[in-house]
Amino acid sequence: MLRISPLVRLALVLLCAGAGAAAVRAQTATGISQLFYTGQTSTGALQGAGDPDANWTVTYASTDGGAHANTAYEGSAYVINPSQVSGSGYTPNTTQAQWITAPGATNSSGTSPNTGGDFLPGNGNTGANEGVYIYTLAFTISGTGGVGTTVASQIQITMTMAADDQYSIYVNPAGNGRTIPTGTAAASQTSAWSNTTQIALQNYGTSNNSTFHIGVNYIVVVVDNTNSATGVSSSTALNASGLLVYQTSAATIDGHPVPEVATWLPMAGAVACYGIFLARRRSPASRSAPV
């Protein structure tokens, strides 16, 4: 029988306890959920034209370049009529994602709000007529550590995004989309209505453009409706504006596709310590007698 001295037993117990404490301090992510494309229901099905988006919300809108909020255009985004997208030069809708726009958008004549049109105020990329619309998606990261603690695991969320006219994307900025974010965006694109370039939000590597937390997180997309004008514009004309986001479900934790990693990662430390416990508890009666 293998005999373990009391001091060694104590050391093993402290080792397991220390490993458990270290795991908590590391704030390990075990799963990511609620990464929805634009234009989906809460179960991932496609919504009808003019339906409110169940997941993406316009959390801030301004029709004067951010000087004041315009609450008439805040609330659940809604799905643009596919006829408005077809032939417009927009990146096409996919089988799983659709263009959305801010509530209060109208047809080209400025009538019939919230029925599938995508015309909104916005001219120029600065000044009193610039339209700013912030689209926000709340998603959840599960794992060890307290809610709100920074995730140490390497997380990457990839997506493709198109917007009219231009966008900047942030993860968990101050205000979580209730105000115009400051600081460096994780990614941005001008003349983005036909964009098909994939971007990555990640907390490691050379990009390292995002910080994630255990609990609820926010993807915040600032869309400027400029009517393709640079600088200050005196025009007050309505023009098309919207957002398309797809491939948001392509996420990894420490290089493992989500949610596959969630089935085994939390168990590793517990299984190792339990194995040591069993080795200590073995008795001569549990072993076969020599032949």
What does this structure look like?
This protein is of the alpha+beta class and 291 residues long. It has helices at residues 6-25, 82-85, 268-281; strands at residues 29-33, 52-62, 75-79, 100-101, 119-121, 131-143, 155-164, 166-171, 187-189, 198-202, 215-225, 238-240, 242-253, 256-257. The strands form three sheets. Strands 1, 2, 3, 4, 6, 8, 9 and 11 form an eight-stranded antiparallel beta sheet that branches. A hairpin with a 2-residue loop joins strand 13 (242-253) and strand 14. The two termini are 16 Å apart. 40% of the residues are buried.
List strands and helices in order, with pairings.
Elements: H1 6-25, E1 29-33, E2 52-62, E3 75-79, H2 82-85, E4 100-101, E5 119-121, E6 131-143, E7 155-164, E8 166-171, E9 187-189, E10 198-202, E11 215-225, E12 238-240, E13 242-253, E14 256-257, H3 268-281
Antiparallel strand pairs: 1-6, 2-3, 2-6, 3-4, 5-12, 6-11, 7-10, 7-13, 8-9, 8-11, 13-14
Helix pairs in contact: 1-3
Alpha carbon gyration radius: 25 Å
Determine the N-to-C terminus distance.
16 Å
Q: Percent helix among the residues?
A: 10-25%
Q: What average pLDDT do the residues reach? A: 84
List keywords for this structure.
four-stranded antiparallel β-sheet, eight-stranded antiparallel β-sheet, 3 helices, 291 residues, 13% helix, alpha+beta
Compact overview of the structure:
The protein has 291 residues and is an alpha+beta fold. Helices cover 13% and strands 31% of the residues.
